[in-house]
Every structure is written in C-alpha cells, then in structure tokens.
Amino acid sequence: MRDTESQLGPIGILVNNAGINPVKSFDQITAEDWDETIRVNLSSAFHVTQAALPGLRTRKWGRIIIMSSVAAQTAGVIGPHYAASKAGLIGLAHSYAALLAKEGITSNVIAPALIETDKPAMERDPRKSRRRASILSARLITSSQRSCRNSAGELGQATVRLVRGQAPDAACRRRADGT
C-alpha cells in the first residue's frame, strides 16, 4: 500500500475486483479449491481494504467498492465455494458501511450476473457457449440492500455514482419509468 501511495498519491477510492471462478462439479470440490477461492475472492478484499483504511480514516473520506456476484444470493452455476466467497464480500461491505459511514467512508457492493467476455475458455466449453446467447443482465446490490436490474454496460455508471456518493438505484428508477 505504501508503494502504491508513494507512486500514485493517497488512495481515496478502492475497488476490490480480484477474483477467481474455478468451475467444478460440487462433489469434486476439494478443501484446497475451497481455501483458494475464499483466499482470492474474500480474504484479499479484506486485506487490501484493511491496508487502505488508515489513510481513508485520516482523511475522513473514502469510497470502498467491492465486486461480488449475483451467485452470492442465487448460488449461481460455478459452485458453493464461489457462492460462499461472494456472499462473504457482501457481508464484508455491510460491516464496513456500518462501521465507517460516520467517518465519511462509504462501502458498497456491485454484484453482476454473468457478463459476456472474450475469455477463450468460453469458446472451449460448449455449456458456456450456449449460455452466451442468454447472458443474464446484471444485478446491482448496494450496502443498503436495495437492488435493481442493469445491463452489464451500466455497471461502470453505477460505480461512478457510488464514487460520487450518489445512490446507484436512481439510475434504476430512471430506467424503470422510461426516463
């Protein structure tokens, strides 16, 4: 964290976006698979946020945005190790939101569903290729538990709104009523 801040300046906006999604049949998931998924998807967000907090708290301002997944609430298609790690991120964001709001630091979660990418693995796996045609729209979940449906392209707009301290669900109201 010190190296990053010495090169780029103080951190005011932290986006936790590290993650893996090892796809395995639930009866083939090993303890090692579980531990690695929790370590990369959940523990890394905790450690990076904890490292950024002293500076955020000193400045009495900051934005913590954590990328989760709709699998946290729906189980998804990847497996229980992934769903549990992403659900943990929502709990982490809720805790930070409750503990840090009075200090001017917000904490929110963006939890998209499947998003089409150019990952070569999608082309190699026929199940994933079939799903590409029916990619789900994204679901945005904030730390106040409000939710709405958005397209994947609107995730960036939601992130910007959170950074600005605006409610991301305002975009949902506009979209829902056609304005």
Description:
The protein has a single domain (2-176), classed as Rossmann fold. Helices cover 50% and strands 13% of the residues. The chain has helices at residues 2-8, 31-59, 71-74, 80-100, 120-124, 126-132, 155-163, 169-176; strands spanning 13-16, 62-67, 105-110, 138-141, 147-150. The protein has a three-stranded parallel beta sheet, with helices on both faces. The longest helix is centred in the N-terminal third of the chain and has 29 residues, at 31-59. Mean pLDDT is 76; it is low at 120-124, 126-150 and 170-179.
Distance between the termini: 42 Å
H/E series, N to C?
HEHEHHEHHEEHH
Mean pLDDT: 76
**For the CA atoms, what is the radius of gyration?**
17 Å
> Which overall shape is indicated by the principal axes computed on the Cα atoms?
globular
The CATH topology annotation reads as Rossmann fold
Strand content: 5-15%
The tally of domains stands at 1
Q: Please provide the count of β strands.
A: 5
Strand count, sense and barrel status of the largest sheet are: 3 strands, parallel
Supply the CATH superfamily name: NAD(P)-binding Rossmann-like Domain
Instruction: Order the strands across the largest sheet as they lie in space.
Output: 1-2-3
Assigned CATH class: Alpha Beta
